[in-house]
């Protein structure tokens, strides 16, 4: 049943690379981004890495006529960097900050300070309720030795859980952002298979953009070539995903990316390429399209969640080892603290003044304090990893129940292994 | 239309006061709690302050036949303390850790270490989808000078947002826990008015328990009498709230509390009283009861959110002052750091050895580090408070739109004041 409701929706997504005093030509690029958005008049623009509120306010002023509705999500020390500009009224907003997001002492990476998160805005698109998510996951600094893999997997899990549980009443669901994952990476498969969200790049009728949909390309003025190795042609890490509902069928009619250099401009918009998706909306009471993941293979969901559980377990072991190291640091500092005490009581030929002892004591105290802070940090990380693993087990069990159709009480274990254990509901004792 | 689906649901909630080596008679009380739950066979038991996983595992073993489905929510350093025991299958779980939860340096209060949160479990009650929430908010240590009031208000806001956005597909919604707020406190009114959740104590047909439904009472062996001043009779801070849906009407048929001493036992279960609610469920396709807050007065919602915004703004000013103090500490430490440098170059009569200077330098470094950590902490708090205020403004604007029926585009401001400003969409420039 066709209605007079909107039949088109255009969504834009860009990682703006907006680190003041660090990102090149920041002010000029924000000017260009503002112009582009003014001109293109997308229904909704999802921006990431708008780290400075001043830059957000600049865009807000610039887009006050074209996109009068905005929300800037705030979290962490300098984050979250997420901003939404909309031509349609934003009714509500909700933020979920990821529980794991790197380490505060990794200053050169700095993700921890960004308070990475997923933001949800509920947009009234001429009577349609669109749940629009914008997110930015932890960066991948080394594909070969990715020390943040478990963090990114936990973030993917939290993202999918958040989308699953908050998209229920939506007519349309759109997710845009920088996932920092290749298309077939575990976190990406997890997200797609458990939310039913579909990747616009693989779904689109028409594509105009970089080869293979890449959003980090060698042809971009700002891209460091070594960051692309061994993917010289480029990487696809920015996405627009979508799903419809029982009331509205959503179809990606076209997807485009910027291609590095911009016509009549001396440099690109960002070190990432921007995405623009155009959706066709079919309002139909008898639409067979389901918003939920019911149509996806349960077995595929089970496989991917099992893989993710194994990875989270591995992350747990690594984090436990880090916590042990923090404990050793504390013990070492405590032992060292005994040294000035011993020196104070021993006859010593060297000039062990009160001040020397004090200095040594102060150093020990700093080490002890650092050890204690690290211990606390890794303890909270372990809690998060365990919580994620437990939730994954619950999902596995639920999928198993669906698969076997066995819904008799007592037939599955919540805290057990993913295999159903009818007579032993508590397989794993922690 | 009556069906063969369950017509009753019994829910239990208790703050277990389970701080190992601190809470009195912890082991014995967990024995008693386990016995009570085994015997009473509630459908769902919601526990708070189960701080030790060992105690959770004890209960899990004890309740393996009566409540085979469990989830223990993990967050923070030692938290979250939240546990669910269910006779019905738990299909899924989701945790939302509150963004503000006291200060890590307030060791004697310790809430920060608990990682206070709201946990959601989705329970399959014989075909009915029950969304069951368990939570524990920041404690109130002084009613006259409550330094955590803005934190608790932000927690209430995050709780209501979480419930609003994750309860959409539920047949039944139940929330139980220790809200650490009196019945008419702002956070409580905010929660009820914006979620449509109803307080079992005021809704029940039959009540058997402490006077005025108190859950902290003078007659409890473990209660410190000074904690009750000036409410000598007792305080009601533990709640079970509920709402039905269009498919199921939910009615609280009876509510009871424990009353301090327990028959045949030398002491009570906890320093809090336990709550038990029994719900009647009416399955009706033409039920007029709405799960949403539509039936509640929009104007009441607006008033309470305006009050909350004012409080959050006040919290923001206080936190900005704290951040300034942290900055002063940093500057002071930096200035002090110049002292040993100056002393090293000045001819000095006192015995300013290298070690003395080193000691002084080390002290300055510790002060500088502390100042920096506090600065980071308060900066993240400010982000959270601003985000909360922004979300509250969005809600205000949406309510205003509902109230006036004015849904023309450009008629409300997302970031503006709660009053609609048709020609000035961006009232407030931050």
TrEMBL record, chains A, B:
Q: Which cofactor does it need?
A: Mg(2+)
GO cellular component labels:
membrane
Kindly give the membrane topology term recorded for this protein.
Answer: Multi-pass membrane protein
Subcellular compartments? Membrane
Q: Extract one GO BP annotation from the record.
A: sphingolipid metabolic process
Q: Name one GO molecular function term.
A: metal ion binding
Q: Which InterPro entries match?
A: Endo/exonu/phosph_ase_sf, Endo/exonuclease/phosphatase, Sph/SMPD2-like
rRNA-binding as a keyword of this entry, yes or no, is: no
Keyword Membrane applies: yes
Q: Which residues belong to any copy of the Endonuclease/exonuclease/phosphatase domain?
A: 13-272
Q: Where is this region: Disordered?
A: 409-430
What are its E.C. numbers?
3.1.4.12
Transmembrane intervals: 326-346, 358-378
UniProt pathway annotation: Lipid metabolism; sphingolipid metabolism; Sphingolipid metabolism
Signal sequence coordinates: none
Q: Catalysed reaction(s)?
A: 1-O-hexadecyl-sn-glycero-3-phosphocholine + H2O = 1-O-hexadecyl-sn-glycerol + phosphocholine + H(+); a sphingosylphosphocholine + H2O = a sphingoid base + phosphocholine + H(+); an N-(acyl)-sphingosylphosphocholine + H2O = an N-acyl-sphingoid base + phosphocholine + H(+); 1-hexadecanoyl-sn-glycero-3-phosphocholine + H2O = 1-hexadecanoyl-sn-glycerol + phosphocholine + H(+)
Q: Which PANTHER family match?
A: PHOSPHODIESTERASE, PUTATIVE-RELATED, SPHINGOMYELINASE FAMILY MEMBER
Q: What is this protein called?
A: Sphingomyelin phosphodiesterase 2
- Naturally occurring in which organism (per UniProt): Cyprinus carpio
Q: What is the lineage of its organism?
A: Eukaryota, Metazoa, Chordata, Craniata, Vertebrata
